Amino acid sequence: MPAPISSTGLRGPLPIETPVERKSPGGFQTALQDAIKEVEEFRRTADESVGRFLSGENEELHQTALAVQQAELAFELFLQVRNKVVQAYQEIMKMQI
User: Is 95 exposed, middle or buried (0-12, 13-18, 19+ CB in 10 A)?
Assistant: First the structure.
C-alpha cells in the first residue's frame, strides 16, 4: 500500500514575503551610506599611504600606487552606479500614470 502524502516530509507552501517585509525601512539609504563610507575609506587609506611614502616611513612605491589606484577605481565605480540610479529615476519620472 502506498504511503500517504503527508508522510513525505513536505510542508505546505512557504509564505510569500515582499521586499518591504524583509528589509528594514530606509534600506536603500543605508546601502548608499555604506557605499559612500567604503569609498571614503579607500580615499583615506590612499592619502595615508601617500603621506607615509613621502615622509619615508617604510612605505613601498608599489603599495602606494596600488592604494591610490584602488581609491580611484572605487570612486569611478561609485560614480557609474550613481549615474545609473539617477538615470533610472529620470526614466521613472517620465512614465505616465
Answer: exposed
